Amino acid sequence: MSRIGTVELRDAVLDDGSFRSWDDTPLAVPTNEAYARELAKARAATGRDESVLTGEGRVFGRRVAVVVGEFGFLGGSIGVAAAERITAAVERATAERLALVASPSSGGTRMQEGTVAFLQMVKIAAAVTLHKHANLPYLVYLRHPTTGGVFASWGSLGHVTLAQPGALVGFLGPRVYEQLYGEPFPAGIQTAENLLRHGVIDGVVPLAELRETLDRTLTVIADEPGPPPPPAPVTELSDVDAWVSVVASRRPDRPGVKHLLRHGATDLVLLSGTGSGEAATTLLALARFAGQPAVVLGQQRVVGGIVGPAALREARRGMALAAELRLPLVLIIDTAGPALSADAEEGGLAGEIARCLSDLVTLDTPTVSVLLGQGSGGPALAMVPADRVLAARHGWLAPLPPEGASAIVFRDTAHAAELAAAQGIRSADLVASGIVDVVVPEYPDAADEPVEFSQRLSGMIAAELHALRGVPVAKRTAARLQRYRRIGLVEPPMPRD
């Protein structure tokens, strides 16, 4: 597996000639004779004075800060001097309000400096966290190899985390494992591709594509929104039976969130998993709708369409990402209901639904929810309480699928259509009850005009995002809380003294 050096990484990512070093002479640390010889040898071999390079440059004209590890310098290990350099660079990026691109390549803590070096990961993690708390982007590109305390600190804190194809990435170095346990570490576990499959990282990107990927990412999370889209024409829709909408929402060829993003969004960056080692069915992405940037959470139309705890943890990751980056959040609801299994119960499904509801209704960024198709049960409810709620004409929302409601009320499923009408689940009913704000037309069914529908929906999402951006945070969040306080009440509640 080839290693990517600091200069190679720098030159592949930054605009030509734009790099400016921030590095001062490394901090003097206590050394014995043997360690001093190792440092001198590493400096001579690499032409670097420490295991990290820091500075600033530009990515397609945008000013960014960079922190790049050099594995050739004592295995990219982090001691006091390297950690001080990293921390100072992160703090400067925060003070100057720059996006930060970090690319570690390291075996972890510098053993020659012992426990003091080990504790340096704390101050690096603190600086990165404060950078993120300042609502500034932190983007990570893991290079071969990245292990130990580096992976367990600044290598795992990215808003977006990418990795070099084939890179060895893991907490415990395989050589250490073999020495400790007398057998090789299982093959294929500590690879970038395996971590992507398990939702630990967001993407595996060749160096040749990294610059373009960073450009798309920064277009969404750092660039200003575009102008508002033209208003959508107002169209009167004929009445539609609730059961017709239920059947339409279940068509296998109905466009889902992937189709919406493919035909209705630009600057798309797909993310992966919860960041906690779980791949999930929720789609998480960064994208722009008619120039309006957003974090996108979408329930995918997979077999069965059910949602488990991992999918909701991924949704909560998206909510946190939107909050940290001060980006609007778009939620696409399309689920047949919750996973009903022992694994789901033991995985804390109910608690994840509750935490999603809690996080979303109190989120301080603009939020737009879209009932794209089926909206069944707790996993649908968990993604509803936004500032604005759109519904496709055949989108619907119910405590259970109509067949389940029929089983409870009539002890059979034959009355599903009757229950669908009686419960007020269709888009027109949801508008009347104050749950939905706008119905997105289908002519007559999104599956019959998938591209046109996706583009129509995208334009309406963009219009809502643009309008919400102009509302002060306190006013917007107060209106959201009051909205959900009043749903179902004939008269508004009397204020308390």
Derived structural class = alpha/beta
- Going by CATH, the homologous superfamily of the largest domain would be 2-enoyl-CoA Hydratase, Chain A, domain 1
Number of separate helices: 20
CATH topology of the largest domain: 2-enoyl-CoA Hydratase, Chain A, domain 1
Helix % is 40-55%
- Any idea what the CATH architecture of the largest domain is? Alpha-Beta Complex
Radius of gyration: 25 Å
Biggest sheet layout: 7 strands, mixed
Shape: elongated
Distance between the termini: 69 Å
| Strand line-up of the largest beta sheet | 1-2-3-4-5-7-9
* Overall structural domain count: 2
Task: Please report the total strand number as a whole number.
Answer: 18
Low-confidence stretches: none
Portion in beta strands: 15-25%
Compile the SSE list and pairings.
Blueprint: H1 6-13, E1 20-21, H2 33-46, E2 52-59, E3 62-69, H3 80-95, E4 99-103, H4 114-118, H5 120-133, E5 138-142, E6 146-147, H6 148-151, E7 160-163, E8 169-170, H7 174-181, H8 192-197, E9 203-204, H9 207-221, H10 242-249, H11 257-264, E10 266-271, E11 282-289, E12 292-299, E13 306-307, H12 309-325, E14 329-335, E15 337-338, H13 342-346, H14 349-361, E16 367-375, H15 377-381, E17 388-392, H16 402-410, H17 416-422, H18 427-432, E18 438-440, H19 450-469, H20 473-486
Parallel strand pairs: 3-4, 4-5, 5-7, 6-8, 7-9, 12-14, 13-15, 14-16, 16-17, 17-18
Antiparallel strand pairs: 1-2, 2-3, 10-11, 11-12
Helix pairs in contact: 3-5, 11-19, 12-14, 16-17
Organism: Mycobacterium kyorinense
Protein name: Acetyl-CoA carboxyl transferase
Family: Belongs to the AccD/PCCB family.
